[in-house]
Design brief:
The protein has about 375 residues and is of the alpha/beta class. It has helices at about 10-20, 65-70, 95-105, 110-125, 130-140, 140-155, 195-200, 215-220, 235, 285, 320-335, 345-350, 355-370, and strands at about 1-5, 25-30, 40-45, 50, 60, 85, 90, 185-190, 205-210, 225-230, 245-255, 265-270, 280, 300-305, 315-320, 340-345. The chain is built from 13 helices and 16 strands. Bound molecules: flavin-adenine dinucleotide. Flavin-adenine dinucleotide (FAD) binds near residues 8, 40, 249, 316 and 353.
């Protein structure tokens, strides 16, 4: 008999398991995948840590979370500075003075602000009726046409004129020379990969892989006083109220016989003709932009395609619309009636959590449970 059965060896499950063990509880962790680390799993290919379920950049303003997670990994100085490729023209992201200089030749922040204002005025949109009008009314026509339109249409699979304006309430425009995508105090990638970081969290804890809790639920329930469940909440209830929807991404990985493909971790393809939304070159998460990475003769890239999600596909981003929100609320009511099961994490709470938020949420739960 264990004090806690933890379903899911992702970040939520691993943090809870670590803290429970530290508090003297007996813990068993199971995961239906063949590996630990959930969606932050990194796999070594040609000496490079490949982010198998999508590129993950750790960034946070939460000092408590940063102090906590850096006990389990050293973080490098990676700063997310994506590049936009529009038909071979390269622009800095997020929109900043480098972007405006390349777009219009403007040199000072004042000139850039005037140019944006001039284009907004010329468009004459007072009440935006769709995403296209909203974007133009915020940043003008040139940035919209070259850097927003194609990318957004590929992401959503629909023309911007058919997308609601509320999707982009505001667009960050920086009148400084700053290519750092995140406004976070702490940022980086764990040296050695996320899998090693999660393995450190799970050090000394019994973990069983390739075990689906829902297939042997009664057996597993009988083994523990309490269950921390980080799988999908609708799956737990056998989808009896319906299926919660997700947005999906498809990754096409390729190992190339060259040391450097694009010179940056992320390049967004912002034209509509290129079918992928972006290309990730994994080695640049680890080695920074210095020469070191060139010691490796090969490189691994992932092309990302937005794809429609259907039941059975890998669930990525919860869809935060009214329909799914209401369905989740009904499942949550059922979950609250489960006597010994606690639902947590991005699938258990049907919530888009960044890594820092999921760690904070697991630590909160530990305080409630283990005090
Ligand atoms: C494409 C993508 C990119 C992202 N990029 C970033 C980023 O750059 N920065 C950032 O901060 N965050 C990012 N995130 C968010 C990050 O992935 C999550 O915050 C984090 O992985 C959530 O951890 P979790 O433990 O809740 O869930 P998960 O990692 O999904 O772990 C849940 C685990 O439960 C297991 N499981 C489910 N059902 C069962 C079952 N029945 N039996 C046994 N095991 C089961 C699963 O196999 C899985 O291993 C990204 C997310 C996505 C989708």
């Amino acid at each position: 008999m264990y004090d806690y059965l933890i379903v899911g060896a992702g970040l939520y499950g691993a943090v809870f398991a670590h803290e429970a063990k530290k508090a003297g509880k007996s813990v068993l962790v199971i995961d239906k995948r063949p590996n630990i680390a959930g969606n932050v799993y990194t796999e070594k290919v040609e000496g490079i840590n490949v982010h198998k379920y999508g590129a993950h950049i750790f960034h946070t303003n939460n000092k408590k979370v940063w102090n906590y997670i850096t006990q389990f990994a050293e973080f490098n100085r990676f700063t997310n500075s994506p590049v936009a490729n529009y038909h071979g023209e390269l622009y800095s992201l997020p929109f900043n003075m480098y972007t405006f200089n390349k777009m219009w030749g403007v040199v000072t922040p004042e000139e850039a602000a005037d140019k944006i204002e001039e284009q907004r005025k010329a468009a004459g949109i007072t009440e935006p009726k769709n995403l296209e009008e909203q974007a133009i009314s915020l940043v003008g026509t040139d940035i919209y046409e070259k850097l927003i339109k194609g990318y957004t249409e590929k992401q959503w699979g629909r023309p911007c004129t058919e997308l609601p304006s509320f999707i982009i309430k505001r667009l960050p425009v920086r009148l400084t020379f700053d290519n750092n995508y995140f406004n976070a105090l702490y940022q980086g990638i764990p040296v050695g990969g996320y899998t090693k970081m999660v393995a450190n969290l799970l050090d000394g804890i019994e973990v069983r892989l390739n075990e689906d809790y829902l297939e042997k639920k009664a057996e597993y329930d009988a083994m523990a006083e309490k269950v921390i469940y980080t799988g999908a909440i609708d799956a737990y209830f056998d989808y009896k109220l319906g299926t919660l929807e997700y947005r999906s991404v498809r990754f096409e990985n390729e190992t190339l016989d060259k040391p450097n493909f694009q010179g940056n971790a992320a390049v967004n393809y912002t034209d509509v003709e290129t079918p992928w939304t972006r290309i990730i070159e994994h080695k640049w998460f680890e080695f920074g932009k210095d020469e070191e990475g060139n010691d490796l003769p090969k490189t691994v890239i992932s092309r990302e395609y937005s794809s429609e999600w259907k039941p059975g596909d890998e669930p990525y981003y919860p869809v935060n619309d009214e329909k799914n929100g209401q369905l989740y609320a009904q499942y949550k009511e059922l979950a609250e009636k489960e006597p010994k099961v606690i639902f947590g994490g991005r699938l258990g709470e049907y919530k888009y959590y960044d890594m820092d938020a999921v760690i904070a949420s697991a630590l909160d739960m530990c305080e409630k449970q283990l005090a």
